[in-house]
Specification:
Layout: E1 2-10, H1 13-42, H2 51-56, H3 58-64, H4 74-97, E2 114-117, E3 124-126, E4 136-139, E5 143-148, E6 156-165, E7 168-176, E8 189-194, E9 198-202, E10 207-209, H5 213-216, H6 218-229, H7 241-275, E11 278-282, H8 286-289, E12 296-297, E13 305-306, H9 310-323, H10 325-339, E14 342-346, E15 371-373, E16 380-382, H11 383-403
């Protein structure tokens, strides 16, 4: 099993400058490789630009510019070129499938924030001073950087990445763990129903309230964006100190909301994994649920449109994004795999309007957001609890069918 660890780095002033230069030079390399792709297409070249061709040119690039490109790890530069190659592969895959293409774009220095090292001890070394009580990571061209290691790293370190978030620097490790240590069995199963009013409801009648971090921070986010909007659009080279501070303030506000959402997702998933052996959830198509409504042209007046509920749908989309269902499910699957638990996704259709007592399915069974009353047998309960109960039953049926 591959596990990821993210630790805060404590670089010195000179190391911070070197880290910034490393990002700048890798960004320049990525943009140059992207320009080669564009030139080959515009000039009608019969030869397709591939990663192998661009990687073979690295030796000449490093010799031509030893101060900017030659000082960094060869493997990390290859990893940057691989990222661009994967971006083009994803672009062509979306074109073939009919989705929005999303052609790879040039990156500014402030938009390029990660450098990957594909192998430990190849341009980098984790815990480079093992006999020192302070953990350090050695990066070629930067030196030994202090790391705030708040938890032990289990397994063999495979890859190392350096990431910048605002003014802070992080090191991200992936470690391969051979033997998992599953949690003891509890004999409990549960179904969960994700929602807006409540973050989730389980089949046992429990609820996890929705923290709504984005809505709670909406006023501060709006003030930060308003302060930033007062500055004219300029290049990074021409920005004033006040402009840079306004940009950092916006990044800080969004970063705090993101960390709060991740913290809530981790704690909610950990509680479920520790208490239950089998967890069933709805297989939600979140991207489809958060799409904007289709415009309705007015047949009587050309160029005008009929009301289509776009304003109300926009508010619902913001609430769905603020809940962070996708992040929560990703974390839940990762924790369940590490703990030896089983997570089952089931079809979400009719889970909230099917009576768990008699099985009658009708939209009239749910007269309100939180109320459920079966029109056939009169069973009443919380609508989210009913949905979680039906999800659990469907999950157990699917599990037994797979075991048979």
């Amino acid at each position: 099993m591959i596990r990821a660890y993210k630790f805060l780095m404590r670089p010195t002033v000179r190391q911070t400058q070197a880290l910034s230069e490393m990002l700048r030079d890798h960004c320049s390399l990525c943009n140059g490789a992207l320009q080669e792709h564009r030139d080959a297409y515009q000039h009608g070249s019969q030869t397709t630009v591939r990663y192998g061709m661009q990687s073979a040119q690295l030796k000449e690039i490093r010799a031509f510019d030893p101060e900017r490109q030659g000082r960094w790890s060869f493997s990390s530069q290859q990893a940057t070129l691989r990222r661009l190659d994967r971006a083009f592969a994803a672009f062509f895959r979306r074109v073939r499938s009919g989705d929005a293409p999303g052609y790879p774009r040039f990156r500014g220095v402030n938009w390029f924030d990660t450098v990957d090292f594909p192998k430990d001890r190849d341009g980098c070394r984790w815990n480079s001073t093992p006999h020192n009580p302070v953990t350090r990571v050695r990066l070629q061209g930067v030196g030994h950087v202090k790391v705030n290691q708040h938890r032990p790293v289990l397994g063999k370190v495979k890859t190392i990445s350096v990431k910048r978030e605002g003014r802070r620097w992080f090191v991200v490790l992936t470690a391969e763990q051979d033997q998992l240590e599953p949690l003891p069995m509890t004999g409990s199963t549960v179904g969960i129903d994700l929602g807006i009013a409540n973050f989730l409801a389980d089949s046992n009648g429990g609820f996890v309230p929705s923290p709504r971090h984005g809505r709670m921070a909406a006023a501060k986010l709006e003030a930060a964006h308003k302060a930033l909007s007062r500055f004219p659009r300029r290049t990074a080279k021409d920005r004033t100190a006040n402009h840079r501070r306004a940009v950092e303030k916006v990044a800080q506000r969004h970063g705090k909301v993101r960390r709060q959402r991740l913290d809530h997702a981790h704690k909610s998933a950990l509680g479920l994994v520790r208490a239950h052996d089998v967890i069933a959830h709805e297989d939600l198509k979140i991207r489809n649920m958060s799409k904007a409504p289709v415009p309705k042209p007015d047949p009587g007046q050309a160029g005008l449109f009929l009301p289509n509920g776009a304003a109300a749908k926009a508010g619902l989309n913001r609430s769905i994004a603020d809940a962070g269902w996708g992040v929560f499910l990703t974390i839940l699957y990762a924790k369940a795999e590490s703990a030896g638990r089983e997570v089952i996704a089931v079809d979400p259709r009719n889970t909230s309007c099917t009576c768990p007592e008699c099985g009658h399915t009708a939209r009239e069974n749910r007269p309100a957001q939180e109320k459920f009353r079966c029109v056939a047998c009169g069973h009443t309960a919380h609508a989210d609890t009913v949905g979680a109960t039906n999800v659990l039953r469907a999950g157990l049926v699917r599990r037994n069918a797979n075991l048979a």
